[in-house]
Write a sequence for this structure.
């Protein structure tokens, strides 16, 4: 690793990996139903001691069936969104690209909604979410054409495609019978409240695999971010590697969206903050984004459910925090990109 | 490690590159000159694998370029574009490290060997203390050197440099070409550059190639091919060749 | 019902629109009366109303119950296509044109063509209530009971007055009050009840009077509703566990195949295992409130809930008999209840 950055890096990297775990453990104590600290630890320890059970008492139910799945989803989901944002930014040579500006969010949401409304519980919505997420990206690529590496055309294409899928979503709402509609509207707001172990059984492994794959690919992202011509001259098969990254990034975003609804801005804010602190080298940006993305979403979820007895949809929280942050970033971080 | 074009035809939009036969000798510094739009950069990009050419038209080190896998091609041919089109502000060393892409498998990271080679390349081009500086901190000339260092890290025997002296002040121009000269002499690399500055081209090249409108009008050692008639044909203007104090000048 | 983020903006827009003067009623009749609707709008209605359009099924039911069904000139999409009961209760509905689209959005042109004197809309559709009034230049009143008996009774009285059926209105009001007042009231505090309505475990009404009338206590009483014009609040699962209700009621006014939340779901939900209602298996369906209420059904529901909350006091409760009686009184069609019960499979609700 290079010289002066190494000092900051030395504590940044372990911090990024430890922080989500610490936050998760701390957040287990937060919630509408107040569980005293001592009881939390006893219940947690009770799982490991012989004869201990993980259910029966309200505390155990809440900890293991409500808070823990939720926090795990926040952790994995935050990592997934941040890493996918960082990767997409690299291969599109475009720091304003993230899952939202490629339409993946709303494409996946539409796919999941379609599945929920017309197929009910027969098929896990993650499949349809992935298919339409990929379709959305394909559409953006098609619309942006050769200008894919320029900021403005891609943003425009992303806005168009997102708007398209939002409209289609409204259509689904319109067409859905009133009974399915109720459930759908609620889901669309974006919330980790729906996380159950059944959902996580599919989502967590998929996200884990995707993030690991992108982590393995992290140095390659440096090469791809040099652009088509130079990357090709350096001997890289640009077409296939780009497809690979898009596919994996879409997969993990779709997996999260299918369970938690639309959560935006994480994939934009976190990689930017990380680059400001640690430089643009993706060998650092990817793992740091994963760690801090996970932490961010855990904190956001704490706010979403801890503030009141009802729940603030987390998608709104990340937007409310994300937008002013984004404006700030644009003004301050001219040294990160041209 | 020579570069040979045989029946190379490349078209895009309304431009057509047509080179029936051209050999750029191994271990020499060859400069390609000509007016704007002559196809110099296009030819270079074809040789670099940036633009796809049909089989049997372009050969590097005796091997068909179109038949090579990207990885193998990159180990033979290094390409230095005119301006790096970077978006992210990498540290110089990380930037040079990307030159090792042909040697590092897709899901791996650079090893200490790759790192050593990158540092050596930086040293060779004279950017020793710059490893931790970022690209935006560098001057245009220093960035150009970083690009060359990156190509060097590829360990390829053939280096293609597109207008390496453009936008540089005279001193940096000389330094860059001197570096190219050293690469050809000390490391026996085949250096192919496109240049605008005829005087520099004559001074530093072992061979020159004159191109116009996508065709090669002349190629060979400067002493053999240089003539006022050729210059008039290539550049559509009268130039006088003047020799003074051992240097050749062109008066327009 | 819509807890969407745009709620805030539309609420602000409505507030701004309300600051403007309301468009005057187009009729040139001399005497006019004023209704205060559920969106706190003062709506001037003509003294004599002959042509009515109701986009709120609750009001439509009341109009038919009051015997003024002949004044209806149009019917909304839901009643025409999804309501099994209404054709039995009011067979002439067959000939009435449909005045709204799927999704209950009103068909402005159709409404204008039918030249109503008065239009009723639903408070949960506040976005277009005011614009509808301005477009068709006819008074539009947004009325719904939102889970409260007082509202229901007032609607009945208001409608009776406007439609010239004041006597019948009084008759129905008395019947309603007698049937619901004091049912299940006794000295012991009743069971604490959590209601899961609108297809989600986490959505609950902040007001649902049948529960109180039947002698129970709604856990969610006092919470703020999620949006203007609705009675729905969204809670977290932890909140339900914290309340630890004695009974959980699930909205069953859906055909069995379309229920998003079922009794089986709740009983097998491992997160709720510690809740008393789940442990004692006191999880039942009830009719519930959607964005409208059928007044006859409210009577039945109150009696049904009383039998659930205080089984010792109402041992011989017969759902079918209660239903047929209520529907017979309101609509003159006991068979309508049987049809509804058949569609909802109500008889399975207490047989376990």
């Amino acid at each position: 690793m290079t010289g002066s950055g190494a000092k900051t890096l030395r504590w940044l990297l372990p911090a990024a990996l430890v922080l989500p775990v610490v936050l998760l453990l701390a957040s287990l104590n937060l919630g509408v139903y107040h569980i005293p600290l001592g009881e939390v630890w006893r219940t947690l320890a009770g799982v490991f001691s012989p004869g201990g059970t993980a259910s029966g008492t309200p505390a155990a139910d809440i900890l293991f069936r409500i808070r823990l799945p939720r926090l795990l989803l926040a952790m994995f989901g935050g990592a997934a969104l941040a890493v996918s944002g960082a990767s997409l930014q690299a291969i599109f040579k475009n720091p304003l690209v993230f899952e939202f500006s490629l339409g993946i969010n709303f494409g996946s949401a539409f796919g999941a909604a379609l599945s929920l409304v017309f197929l009910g519980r027969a098929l896990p919505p993650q499949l349809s979410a992935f298919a339409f997420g990929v379709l959305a990206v394909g559409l953006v690529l098609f619309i942006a054409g050769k200008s894919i590496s320029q900021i403005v055309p891609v943003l425009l294409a992303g806005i168009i495609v997102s708007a398209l899928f939002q409209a289609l979503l409204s259509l689904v709402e319109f067409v859905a019978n009133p009974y399915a509609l109720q459930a759908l509207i609620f889901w669309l707001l974006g919330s980790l409240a729906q996380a159950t172990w059944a959902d996580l059984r599919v989502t967590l492994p998929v996200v884990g695999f995707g993030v690991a794959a992108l982590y393995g690919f992290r140095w390659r992202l440096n090469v791809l971010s040099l652009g088509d011509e130079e990357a090709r001259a350096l001997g890289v098969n640009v077409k296939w590697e780009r497809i690979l990254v898009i596919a994996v990034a879409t997969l993990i975003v779709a997996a999260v969206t299918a369970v938690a609804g639309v959560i935006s801005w994480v994939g934009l804010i976190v990689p930017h903050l990380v680059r400001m602190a640690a430089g643009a080298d993706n060998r650092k940006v990817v793992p740091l984004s994963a760690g801090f993305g996970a932490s961010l979403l855990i904190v956001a979820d704490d706010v979403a459910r801890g503030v009141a007895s009802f729940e603030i949809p987390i998608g709104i929280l990340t937007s409310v925090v994300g937008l002013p942050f984004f404006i700030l970033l644009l003004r301050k971080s001219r040294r990160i990109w041209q | 490690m020579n570069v040979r074009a045989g029946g190379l035809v490349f078209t895009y939009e309304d431009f057509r590159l047509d080179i029936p036969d051209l050999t750029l000798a191994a271990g020499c510094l060859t400069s390609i000159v000509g007016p704007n739009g002559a196809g110099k950069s296009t030819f270079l990009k074809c040789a670099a694998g940036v633009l796809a050419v049909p089989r049997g038209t372009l050969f590097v080190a005796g091997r068909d370029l179109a038949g090579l896998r990207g990885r193998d091609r990159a180990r033979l041919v290094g390409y230095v574009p005119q301006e790096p089109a970077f978006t992210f502000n990498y540290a110089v060393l990380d930037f040079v490290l990307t030159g090792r892409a042909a040697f590092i498998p897709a899901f791996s990271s650079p090893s200490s060997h790759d790192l050593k080679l990158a540092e050596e390349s930086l040293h060779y081009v004279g950017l020793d203390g710059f490893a931790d500086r970022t690209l935006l901190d560098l001057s245009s000339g220093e960035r150009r050197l970083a690009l060359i260092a990156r190509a060097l890290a590829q360990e390829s025997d053939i280096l293609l440099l597109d207008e390496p002296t453009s936008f540089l002040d005279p001193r940096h121009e000389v330094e860059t070409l001197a570096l190219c000269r050293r690469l050809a002499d000390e490391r026996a690399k085949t250096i192919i550059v496109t240049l605008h500055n005829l005087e520099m081209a004559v001074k530093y090249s072992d061979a020159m190639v004159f191109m116009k409108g996508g065709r090669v009008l002349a190629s060979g050692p400067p002493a053999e091919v240089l003539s006022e008639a050729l210059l008039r044909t290539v550049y559509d203007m009268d130039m006088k060749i003047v020799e003074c104090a051992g240097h050749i000048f062109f008066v327009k | 019902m819509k807890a969407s983020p745009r709620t805030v903006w539309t609420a602000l827009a409505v507030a701004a629109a309300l600051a403007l003067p309301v468009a005057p009623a187009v009729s040139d009749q001399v005497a006019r009366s004023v209704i205060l609707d559920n969106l706190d709008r003062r709506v001037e209605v003509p003294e004599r109303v002959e042509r009515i359009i109701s986009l709120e099924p609750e009001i439509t039911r009341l109009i038919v119950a009051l015997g003024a069904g002949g004044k209806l000139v149009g019917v909304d999409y839901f009643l025409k296509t999804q309501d099994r009961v209404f054709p039995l209760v009011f067979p002439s509905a067959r000939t009435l044109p449909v005045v709204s689209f799927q999704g209950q959005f009103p068909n402005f042109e159709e409404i204008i063509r039918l030249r109503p004197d008065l239009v009723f809309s639903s408070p949960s559709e506040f976005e277009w209530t005011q614009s509808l009034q301005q477009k068709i230049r006819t008074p539009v009143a947004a009325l719904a009971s939102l889970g409260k008996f007082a509202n229901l009774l007032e609607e009945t009285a208001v409608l009776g007055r406007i439609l010239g059926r004041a006597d019948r209105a009084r008759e129905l009001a008395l019947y309603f009050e007698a049937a619901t007042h004091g049912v299940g009231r006794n000295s012991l505090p009743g069971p604490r009840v959590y209601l899961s309505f609108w297809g989600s475990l986490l959505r609950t009404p902040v007001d649902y009077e049948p529960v109180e009338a039947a002698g129970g206590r709604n856990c969610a009483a006092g919470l703020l509703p999620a949006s203007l014009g609705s009675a729905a609040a969204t809670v977290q699962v932890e909140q339900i566990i914290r309340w630890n209700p004695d009974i959980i009621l699930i909205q069953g006014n859906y055909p069995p195949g379309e229920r998003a939340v079922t009794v089986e779901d709740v009983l097998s939900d491992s997160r709720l295992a510690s809740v008393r209602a789940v442990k004692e298996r006191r999880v039942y369906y009830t009719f519930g409130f959607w964005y409208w209420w059928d007044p006859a059904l409210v009577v039945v529901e109150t009696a049904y809930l009383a039998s659930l909350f205080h089984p010792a006091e109402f041992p011989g409760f017969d759902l079918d008999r209660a239903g047929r009686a209520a529907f017979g009184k309101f609509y003159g069609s006991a068979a309508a209840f049987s049809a509804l019960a058949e569609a909802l499979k109500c008889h399975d609700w207490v047989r376990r």
